[in-house]
## 1
Amino acid sequence: MRALVALAALMAASVAIPARASAAAGATCRDVHIPVSFTPGGAKNQRIYGELCTPAGSRPRVIQVLVHGTTYDHNYWDLPGFGGRYSYVKHTVARGYAALAIDRIGVGRSSHPLSALTTVDTDADTLHQVVQAVRSSAFPGGAYPHVVLVGHSFGTLLSELELSEHHDADGIIATGWLAGLTKPVPTAGLVARSYSALLDPAFAGRRFDPGYLTTRPGTRAFFYQAGTYDPAVLAEDERLKQTYTAGELATFVRPLVLDRPIERITGPVLLVLGEHDVFFCGLTGVDCSTSERVMRSQAPHWKVASSLQVYVQKGAGHDIGLSYNNTAGFAAEDTWLTAEFPLG
């Protein structure tokens, strides 16, 4: 254990902290760049970018590490503009919690290794190194005693993999993801809406290989439920869209079938998803009409979790944080955090 702490401290000691203006009102925010190794035991020559926000004038003991889904980056948790209405960061920091919204490896302002080598395993391992960093005394402001992973969609799968393997976070909020395989038709639909990011004008001049993929222009309404989102949000979503890799696409099913990570997670768990999540709910999927019905379908999978709660965000599609009624999901997360990780 002492060796692990020392390693984490050494890794976090080189975190760069450029000053910048706060993105979330009432918060102190800064950019952090966390050195990580792309291979176990290898040189820490890659970087994970994060937006670290804390309540102005205070230093909480609990930090949430926010892990976005496919074709998103940290902006999913802190969408610019709209008076902060679509910022989970602003919401949770106002309630006294710290938040670190990262760009996963291969995304946004983080390093972009070869796409074929950027898989669920490298994603989960670099996320583990981020958790080590925030637990280190060398992290900006010092170590955080309590770490909660908050994932969305593919980011939830990666958070589950990290937590099941290392048990170094204290709990998880799992949004936009349920146990078992995703519905095959919508998953194939996402792939059909994708192409090499090098063909997309949004990524002109970017230096990564053709195995970095993104959604084709005009297709991102796929992540939403009709009538439950602001068209201006969809336009901003299109402007900010990001990449995923052929390596991730080729490997994401394996942990679901072989590893079954959630069966090894021991801490408290909150599941949050939209009633009309295209990947999991409805025909050929789970009945998501009520939280109780989702609980019945999911409880058998969480074999050793200390507690399991479910919240269904009524009417919403996959992108619950960007829907009109996102504050309903935020409130459910508030209630769970207050009960499981009180700030006092």
## 2
Amino acid sequence: MSNQIYVNWGGHNVKLTWLPMKKINDYNKITSVHGYCFHKGHILLVNVIDRGFNIPGGHLEKGETPEEAFHREAYEEGYVKGEIEYIGAIEVSHEDNPLFVPNGKYPLIGYQVFYKMNIEECLPFLHENETTTRIWIKPEEVPNIMNDHELSLLVLKEALKIK
């Protein structure tokens, strides 16, 4: 599997490149944080309204570090807490996107950063945010259930390497 693909996001031709363990120090270029959350050999997937089943994640809020943002997103979407480890980043390039809007919502080249969480606390699911349910699946079931591009499987492989 290649570490680079093109996706069509809302009519936008976007190039995605998986960069294992690449640290992104400029938080202004981080467009979102995501992570695979593990508990007793299973992975947490959340059903996000208008996105389907996916791993917890979302945007940084003003003043947050990526780590703080991921902890918040994992709690808000999956009601879980735990220790996290950095996995890497997906570079999101709009260089080949004729519909790209300079000075718009996203940078020409931005990053989605990824973490692995070992869940230490699983709280009751309260249905308070943008997720409708959570499920626990075996890692090999991810391709059949998660609604995402194939680079997400490379991210999963990296997460599985970390003990």
## 3
Amino acid sequence: MSDTPKPDQFSTLTELLEATGSKLRLYDMGRRIQRVSRLQFIKFERYEIAWPAPLARHAWLALLQTGSANDEPVIWFLKLPLDEQGKLVQAARDYFVQRLAEVWALNKTQESNIPDALKDNPFVFKPREERMAAFHAKVSVDLKQPVSNFHAHAKEYFSGEAGWEQWQFVGYQGIADVAARFAENNNTSLITKAVPQLPAEPLTALCHCLENEEIPLPIAKALLERLQHTMDSGQPDIALVTALIRGISGTVSRTTLASMFERVMQQTAAQHVDVLTAVAGRAWNLLTDEEMAVTYLSRLANNSAGQEVFNAVMRDLLAIPALRNHLLSAAKNADIEQQMQIFQKSLREERKPDTSAT
């Protein structure tokens, strides 16, 4: 990469990082790992737009800097706080830029280990190992890099040749690679045929990777059939139900996604916290449909853990700009008046100024 710029000359993170001569790729690491366009991020930095899919009132980001062919990519994982409108708290971004400026001033060159120097920064986070595997798989596809050494073994496993019980020897990175490359080398057919046969553990791992992809209809249908089969059992495995919801959430078929929602909401499993949070966390787009939103809110109001979970999920969903008006409208038509009153009271309590020190 080129010579180090003078960071204090820049007001945005985009300008600062691109001034090094590197190319910048951005990924949302929150509800789903997906590319974010440069223009969208610039508008977000300029306070022109809200973050489209916040999680816990933050924008969770991976910033990937690439330079010449001989340079190793530099990856930043940042969680930037959002205000009540879902827009960037610019003071947090400015603080991070200033910290970066200080590190560069100390180290003189960008080739120093900047991520390590910023590891105590409150806006830096480390993704879980399974999220890192899915992220690396996606990046390797985007950058047209060779697949990992784990891919071949995982693909062999999903073919069924080694036996379905041999999943303990399959690396998570290999599963992520197969999921991210479903369009290559007949992987779609491979995954579709494997889904009915897979034990719960490897199927769960596969679903957690597929949730980041726009999966084709054959895979989505196979997952939906496995979900129905799981729910039809006397005591369904809630962890597997949750994983299948997450796996189906990335389908390009709205009809399949709606069918998944309707089937799940008809089951007593829909009162389980993990099931409800899986829908909210991965299939939130369905809730722009008022009928589905009413159904969901009714189930949420009667969840197995009570008002505390209702408050937490509502707070999270209302922070999504595209959902807020739909949910507030649906709340008026759902039989949840008592729960909403308690929730709104909790919001008012949160907004009260702290006078304990006065």
